[in-house]
Amino acid sequence: MLKSLPISFILFISVILFLLFPSQVFSAHPKCHSQDKKVLLEIKAALNNPYHLASWNPDDDDCCTWYCLDCDLVTGRVIALTIFSGNISGQIPPAVGDLPYLQNLEFRKLTNLTGQIPSAITKLVNLRELTLSYTNLSGPIPSFLSQLKNLTYLDLSFNDLTGSIPPSLSELPNLDAIHLDRNQLTGSIPDSFGYWTGKTPEIFLSHNNLTGAVPASFGRFQSMIDLSRNKLEGDPSFLFGKNRTSWYVDLSRNLFEFDVSKIEFSDNLTHLDLNHNRIFGSLPKGLTQLNLEFYNVSYNRLCGQIPQGGELQSFDLYSYFHNRCLCGAPLPPCN
Ligand SMILES: *[C@@H]1O[C@H](CO)[C@@H](O)[C@H](O)[C@H]1NC(C)=O
Ligand SMILES: *[C@@H]1O[C@H](CO)[C@@H](O)[C@H](O)[C@H]1NC(C)=O
Ligand SMILES: *[C@@H]1O[C@H](CO)[C@@H](O)[C@H](O)[C@H]1NC(C)=O
Ligand SMILES: *[C@@H]1O[C@H](CO)[C@@H](O)[C@H](O)[C@H]1NC(C)=O
Ligand SMILES: *[C@@H]1O[C@H](CO)[C@@H](O)[C@H](O)[C@H]1NC(C)=O
Ligand SMILES: *[C@@H]1O[C@H](CO)[C@@H](O)[C@H](O)[C@H]1NC(C)=O
Ligand SMILES: *[C@@H]1O[C@H](CO)[C@@H](O)[C@H](O)[C@H]1NC(C)=O
Ligand SMILES: *[C@@H]1O[C@H](CO)[C@@H](O)[C@H](O)[C@H]1NC(C)=O
């Protein structure tokens, strides 16, 4: 039938169709799923219809064009909900758990967001990234987060979370990084954080009130770790070693107490912060072999000559000051 029509006629019809229905002809994505639209409007209502979500218009059929979300280009299902820096008051609506294709959920820089992390989040089995950060969320870090096996990124930093760290989080097999920093967490670091089910993620626990020693299970630890500004104690020198791949170790502002003299550092270590602890002994010569980019051993109980060479003299005296009897450049010469 089409074959018998002149090409010019087909072109003419196409142009008419395009002029009448431009969005249908050139639509880059299918319209959003009606069930997702319904859930989004529930979320908006639960947050008291904030101005930040003004684009979430019930009369607009295509919720994929709304702000703060992304749809899958093939299926039209909502795969990302990212609510960031708005004037939003209230709690995380449990309805977020009813967006079954969500891969990325983010509530960030919302200081009036309060309440606890809702268990409805565990319904999001496809979730890869969960960011609840810079909010006033309180209560514990729920152990049910360990059910989200697809998570590659978990960021709960800068909140008012309390209680201890649930050991079960180490059952998340695909995590690249876990940020629990800047909360009010107490208790000790779980043993299980030294042996993850899958790969070991980068671990950020700084600015909390964690106590106790670093578990011995970290004896094989090979990732990046920030334990700064807690109340941790004991001897975590097993975090170091010649064949470690960790490039970043921050133990600063704790109560750690150990002899640094015999420690062998890996060539991979480029960021070493030990300031404000009770570390004693003399700095080992091996430090001169490292390509250090950040280095701070100030406010400890170190003694003896600073090894000369490598990067060690590229740091100023403030990386070394307030020790018991360290001497040599960049500090004054030894007697
Ligand atoms: C938080 O809520 C209070 C009280 O309604 C309001 O005055 C303030 O502007 C809000 N802050 C932000 C960042 O939305
Ligand atoms: C946030 O919204 C509340 C009420 O909705 C309003 O009183 C307040 O001034 C707003 N704050 C900012 C920073 O816009
Ligand atoms: C949010 O937290 C800040 C600082 O932590 C606090 O000053 C503020 O009162 C809190 N706001 C609410 C609504 O809880
Ligand atoms: C992870 O996501 C994939 C597809 O996105 C899904 O097939 C799988 O069931 C999810 N894994 C779990 C443990 O839910
Ligand atoms: C740690 O606990 C002390 C009291 O023991 C408290 O004053 C401080 O605010 C807490 N710090 C954090 C980050 O929670
Ligand atoms: C590091 O090297 C020592 C011997 O030098 C070995 O016993 C140990 O198993 C190695 N550790 C890792 C994690 O490769
Ligand atoms: C340093 O890290 C690289 C990967 O970034 C790795 O291949 C290498 O084995 C590491 N070296 C040591 C001594 O761990
Ligand atoms: C090292 O830490 C001390 C104490 O916190 C600080 O005063 C100094 O500025 C730091 N040095 C560098 C290079 O960060």
UniProtKB/TrEMBL annotation:
Species in which this protein is naturally found: Oldenlandia corymbosa var. corymbosa
Source organism superkingdom: Eukaryota
Main location: other
Domain Leucine-rich repeat-containing N-terminal plant-type stretches: 33-72
Keywords tagged on the record: Leucine-rich repeat, Repeat, Signal
Signal peptide start and end residues: 1-27
Residue ranges of coiled coil: none
Pfam families per the UniProt record, alphabetical: LRR_1 (PF00560), LRR_8 (PF13855), LRRNT_2 (PF08263)
Localization in the cell: Cell envelope
Similarity comment: Belongs to the polygalacturonase-inhibiting protein family.
Name listed for the protein in its UniProt record: OLC1v1037056C1
